[in-house]
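Pilot study result, target chain (598 residues):
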Amino acid sequence: INTMLVMVRRRTIEIATLKTFGVQGRQIASLFIWEALLLGLVGSIVGIIIGTLLGGFVNQFGEQFLQQSLSWRFYPQSAIYGLVLGLSVTVVFGVLPILTAVQVRPAAVLRPNEGHFPTVGILQSIGVLFLIVLAIGTMVGSILGGEFTERLWGDYLLGFGGTIAALILIGVFLVILWVVVWLVSRLPAFGLVDLKLALRNMTSRRWRTATTLLALLAGMYALSSITFVSQSVRDVIRFSFSDGLGGNVLVFPLTTVFLSPDLAEPIINQRVDNLEGVNSRTRSDFYTFEALELDGEPIEAEVFTFTDQAGEEQSFTESTFFTLARRSTNPNLSSGSIEAGRDLTPDDAGANVIVIREDAIAEGAVALNVGQTLTVELSGFGGGSSGGDTYELEIVGLIAGGADFGSFGQAFIPMGAIDERPGGSITTVDVADEYLNEALVELNALPTVLVLDISYIDDLIQRLIDQFSALPTVVGLLALLAAAAIMANTVLLATLERRKQIGVLKAIGLKGWRVLGVLLLENTIIALLGAGIGIGLSAFNSSILSWIGLGQAVPIPPNAAPVAIGLTAAAVAIAWFATIASAGVITRESVTTVLRYD
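Predicted structure:
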């Protein structure tokens, strides 16, 4: 739309001249429709080539990930879809500027620098929206439905509904960004004339500025999200294994239903005792328990009823089962984010105490408090003991709900609290980095255990993230490229509409570089807003993920901070390049040319 508007508004005098010679409005519309089709054709062909190349790159990533050869071929139907989609989109979204071109009056020839351009009415805008929904919804329905089937109309309805939902979502974002632009334009200029002019220019075309912001923050959000989320996932998993289990080397006893982990523990302890650089060791045994009573009062699980798709009434009972870890305690070990009470200490060994997540039982339906006595029954789930034994455990600490990812359990008890065979067991060893390789070699020599280096898990996750984030990264870069084009068109439109203003500024003594500086300042503010909002949304997502996994919100992971700074600098560079490329010619235009008819 912005590109077509630039084409129309730069050729207003040409359109008015053609109309004075008798050219009809439909002929003007036909001219711009053909230009839109040519733009769509060239853009679609380039897009098909890029898409085909990306397909080859994705195939190579797949071969590296699966470590085997994958066949690849060109899919004509995808190219046809891309070509039809590109041509349709350019024509459909070009209708609004074409209607603007049709409304240009021949009288514009007499006042070429008036700076006033015709606009489209409300009814015409509604008609264009209807056309967009009809065209895009039909294409989406065709892509979803494939060949003609009985569900064809359902696919079309889904396409129409998705298009409407997308337009509504875009509209909501634009309204929010419109308000943001309006608020920013009201900021004080602190006596700086250039800043005052830049802020005033922003508020004169708020909808267009909001559109530019939306395109820019989309690219910034895509690229920053990939980095922030991937780093947050790595931090959460690193915390889960190193902090949640108390070390950087995991030792899994190769036990079965008939072989207890206790038989492997002496062998592991003897080998660990002979290792250098060992800071601590932790054994964690895992069980499944059912909560029976709280302070002697029975815990009754809530029963929920619902009606299924067949119209039959179903019910399910909320679970009172929870996972529990029995483990040795050391100062390096944490049960998670303690909400109330305290964590387990080495002095708790053998005591019937428990630290439990506040929503562990029936998803928080039971109110747990420090000092209460919880009666539990051992379950046979997970390959442990057959169940049936009950225990009374005093609650000494509550873990914050929703922050159990890094703690490998919903509750924790010290060694000696119960004496039952667990369903699984892990020994975690914390080894100094300089002795890590030697420790791995020694432990791997044991025939009854499986040894895993946490750094290997981190490297594997990083490889997976790198593989799967390659294509979204390319999409984010393409979004930034589109944002640069939109910003360039926006600047060009703004300067075309401000030719008289620029001429007046130059007539009263402002140099061309000073006028260009005002435009650079204006678009730098827009770039910083787009980068700030896009990166801010990514930081919000990262905060949620880190809070779930770590128990504390980390908006920008420390290793991702350079990426945030780099993206902000890239946004400013895009704004400067777009401004200089599109506004430089007009700012160098002669004052007499701009003001000739005034």
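One observation from the pilot: Residues 454-497 form the longest helix (44 residues). A full batch analysis is planned for the follow-on phase.
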